[in-house]
Amino acid sequence: MDTQDLRRLANAIRRRDLQAVFEAGAGHIGGEMSVIDILTALYFHVLRVDPENPQDPTRDRFVLSKGHTACALYVVLAEKGFIPKDEIKTFLKPHSRLNGHPNRTKVPGVETNTGPLGHGLPVAVGMALAAKLDNASWRTFVVTGDGEMQEGSNWEAIASAAQYKLDNLTLIIDHNRLQQGARLAETNNLAPFPPKLEPFGWAVEEIDGHDMDQIVAALSPEKVVPGKPRCIVAHTNKGNGISFMSDNVAWHHKVPNAEQYKQAMAELEEANQ
Amino acid sequence: MNAIAEKVKLFDCRDAFTETLEALATEDTNVVAVCNDSVGSSKLTGFRDRFPERLINVGIAEQTLVGVGAGLANGGKIPFVCGAACFLTGRSLEQIKADVAYSNTNVKLIGISSGMAYGELGPTHHSTEDFAWLRAIPNIAVVAPCDNVETAAAVAFAAAFEGPIFLRLSRVGVPQLLPDGHTFELGKANLLRDGSDVTLIANGTLTHRALKAAELLAAKGIEARVLNMASVRPIDEQAIIKAAKETGAILTCEEHTIFGGLGSAVAEVVVDHAPVPMKRLGVPGTFPPTGSANFLLDEFGMSPDGIATTATALVQRKS
Ligand SMILES: Cc1ncc(C[n+]2csc(CCOP(=O)(O)OP(=O)(O)O)c2C)c(N)n1
Ligand SMILES: [Mg+2]
């Protein structure tokens, strides 16, 4: 899919996500709006995955480590054909397989269950190691939140990935500068990320995480540096695309009221013109 | 939820926790709070505004959260280490074992939104193993208050108590069950209703459901004793033995897996001292489906009706 189509699709996914959170009365809309451009590029331009054969051993692996933004992943998986589009309306409903965090035992396309932060990257290191052991060409991608990078497990995994020269592994940090209750800068600041990751032996690139051309270019296999795991620091905005949510810590898991929903939807629709 | 429909005021016990904590911090400058990007969910915004330098937010880093708590205790502070119960216990279990319990540091662990309080967020966010995990570690008290009054009393108790203690709080609304001014005693059950046919033992969010079940049972001619057993360790052995001997059957109810929690702790006392028919209600050893805490409790047979039905069957098993 070309970047113009990817942009339009990302806009549609934002609208479906907004509607799902509004109707369910819960969700993590801020972090969903910040990660949707990245998810769209991954699923519709990069990942070699097949909804008809979700367990294909040669598939690329994707891990949404910031599992609280599951709703965005569900909408993307539905667009891609892993689950019926119609099922999104069951998000958070009793007995739905779409709960607040993705579950691989229930939802095809999900590789590992996330929710507790700081789990995805170590698991992704294991996936990348498995591919290396088999001399297989499939790649592993993982998205973490920037606040999530405060978990020590990530830095243990970063060291391991470098030690094993996992150039088949790509970490994308959704760097929206906000965590749950405050800005990273007011909590436990890790920014800037590149000077922390590079000395570990990682190849790091910074991009605008809402610029589809930059996302697609950064994820291209030609960017792989032999022998080095790769990190893309994606500069994003929490709540991106909705003016009153954008870069506003209040919208980590707040739910829009009817009026806010209408305005948010109108803004997204206008951006799609 | 079927039977708890009438309009009673429900309390979010986190409010009682933070009100008490702020009062304690006013009196004693050694009281500090430690959290993991959970200022809002632990209801610590008031504490932060009043005592900004005494709120330590380590970020999303639970192992460090508990380790820092142990260090603060070593430095003479009284740390209230607050976080979502699932991460506070699960992620930091070894810190709890080595830095808190084994090192015997004066750390107060406050597990917020325990049990299935996070409902639809799913099993990663449920804390239905914490009794079992912490009961397996020596030297840490484990307490699950049943209402706002008991929460406030237990927080005050924890501050005065020398040593490791875990308080398991919810966010799901519960009615006030204990009288104002109630004082908390570690290792002591509260008799909330007397009866001679069966004993219902519960804590946390289940106590009010058990009381409601006792009313339903009374209407059917079954007199149930209800014991609120906030203190899971140490546990009130005398009250359990007495209940076994006087009522001849015990049903436990908890927002926790039935393996290793309150029911198991009660059963350990019962088999050793006074074997009688018993049944444990709780999460039945599966990962719960999607649903709210109250929905899931009902699903797992812990609506007042469900508890009463199980109790009735249990009474029939008495010889
Ligand atoms: C181990 C763990 N601790 C705490 C939480 C609660 N929590 C959920 S989301 C979140 C903030 C995440 O911030 P960030 O990683 O920056 O994500 P984003 O901004 O993209 O939403 C927190 C603290 C959790 N899910 N897991
Ligand atoms: Mg963030």
From TrEMBL, chain A:
<comment type="similarity">
    <text>Belongs to the transketolase family.</text>
</comment>
<protein>
    <submittedName>
        <fullName>Transketolase subunit A</fullName>
    </submittedName>
</protein>
<feature type="domain" description="Transketolase N-terminal">
    <location>
        <begin position="8"/>
        <end position="253"/>
    </location>
</feature>
<dbReference type="InterPro" id="IPR029061">
    <property type="entry name" value="THDP-binding"/>
</dbReference>
<dbReference type="InterPro" id="IPR005474">
    <property type="entry name" value="Transketolase_N"/>
</dbReference>
<dbReference type="Pfam" id="PF00456">
    <property type="entry name" value="Transketolase_N"/>
</dbReference>
<keyword id="KW-0786">Thiamine pyrophosphate</keyword>
Automatic annotation (TrEMBL), chain B:
<keyword id="KW-0786">Thiamine pyrophosphate</keyword>
<feature type="domain" description="Transketolase-like pyrimidine-binding">
    <location>
        <begin position="11"/>
        <end position="176"/>
    </location>
</feature>
<dbReference type="InterPro" id="IPR009014">
    <property type="entry name" value="Transketo_C/PFOR_II"/>
</dbReference>
<dbReference type="Pfam" id="PF02780">
    <property type="entry name" value="Transketolase_C"/>
</dbReference>
<dbReference type="Pfam" id="PF02779">
    <property type="entry name" value="Transket_pyr"/>
</dbReference>
<dbReference type="InterPro" id="IPR051157">
    <property type="entry name" value="PDH/Transketolase"/>
</dbReference>
<dbReference type="InterPro" id="IPR033248">
    <property type="entry name" value="Transketolase_C"/>
</dbReference>
<dbReference type="InterPro" id="IPR005475">
    <property type="entry name" value="Transketolase-like_Pyr-bd"/>
</dbReference>
<dbReference type="InterPro" id="IPR029061">
    <property type="entry name" value="THDP-binding"/>
</dbReference>
<comment type="similarity">
    <text>Belongs to the transketolase family.</text>
</comment>
<protein>
    <submittedName>
        <fullName>Transketolase subunit B</fullName>
    </submittedName>
</protein>
